[in-house]
Amino acid sequence: MKPKNASLQIGHISTILNAYIFVLWATYWISIVRCSDVVNVHDGLIRSEGWHFNNKIETFTNTTNTTTTTTPKVSSNAVTLIDGDFESMNLTGIVSTNTTMSFDNTTSALVNWVVGNVIQVLPVNMYMQSPKWPGSFCVHLNNPNSTTGSTSGSITTTLAINPATGKVFTVQFDIAKHPDSPVNSESVIKISSISGATVNGFGLNKPTYNTSDTRTSISWSTQSFIYTGTGVATNIKIESMSEKYGSLVDNIKILTGKHALSTGAHFAELHLWQKIMPIFTFVAMSLALSYPSFGIASL
């Protein structure tokens, strides 16, 4: 027969142990939910098949809306990219540029860019352009009026110079959510570095926005994608992962080196403590099951 004090002590330790396990798991799952909340897949508005996240690809987001109008400057470490701001469009045959223009994969209107499926080009007189480098046009990576079966599209450009093997490059771009899209929808884009038929790496991004956004007041932000050169011809592809309404993109540029923006990666590895949390929990649960008077079984 155990002494009364020993029984009380064991019960006290058991309570602490159980509370410890509960707090561990609660903290762990809250952290997982917060990580997964970066892209909220719901309402069937986001295509999610085949998604995976490559830890070698880092995606950074500056969530502060740009408000200061500046003149575009060519950085000394910029890689040549023709018409990254979509201001050099081939307007031959286009009746009016004062309305939304729809293009499919047969168009040659976008200089140096190949359209996949369907997109729209939005003019400044109808939609607020990025105030960072304001221009006349931006690209909407969807066409909600498409009758082709899918309303999402893409744009792809081939880099003028093959990226050196092992060298790091940064794609920076302005992004916004389409102001006509439903308030509860998410706009997600996939940006990839592709050599031939091989996807070297990709990142998933989504724009920040305010529920009060309108066509004349759009929350633009600057985001970036890091990739590593392979020494061969490389395409940069930006595609919508959303249906009907997607993201607006503009002012795309490529820099040599890694240029992280002010906030952390959208999709980052779990912290070390999150990785080892299940190990500690397993040990605690094993003790509880092996010694009933010391664990959960004593309750």
What does this structure look like?
The chain has 299 residues and is α+β, with helices and mostly antiparallel strands. It has helices spanning 4-36, 272-290, and strands at 59-62, 78-79, 101-104, 114-123, 137-140, 153-158, 168-177, 189-195, 198-205, 221-228, 235-240, 247-256. Helix 1 (4-36) runs antiparallel to helix 2 (272-290). The longest helix has 33 residues, at 4-36. Mean pLDDT is 77; it is low at 34-70, 262-270 and 294-299.
Briefly, what is this?
This protein is an alpha+beta fold and 299 residues long. The chain has helices at residues 4-36, 272-290; strands at 59-62, 78-79, 101-104, 114-123, 137-140, 153-158, 168-177, 189-195, 198-205, 221-228, 235-240, 247-256. Residues 34-70, 262-270 and 294-299 have low confidence and may be disordered.
Characteristics:
299 residues, alpha+beta, Jelly Rolls, 2 domains, 2 helices, 12 strands, disordered C terminus
Provide the residue-averaged pLDDT: 77
Helix/strand-derived category reads alpha+beta
Q: What is the N-to-C order of secondary-structure elements (H for helix, E for strand)?
A: HEEEEEEEEEEEEH
Stretches where pLDDT is under 50 for at least 5 consecutive residues are 34-70, 262-270, 294-299
The CATH class label of the largest domain is Mainly Beta
* CATH level-4 homologous superfamily of the largest domain: Galactose-binding domain-like
Tertiary shape: globular
Largest sheet features: 12 strands, antiparallel
Helix content bin: 10-25%
Number of domains: 2
Radius of gyration: 25 Å
CATH topology of the largest domain: Jelly Rolls
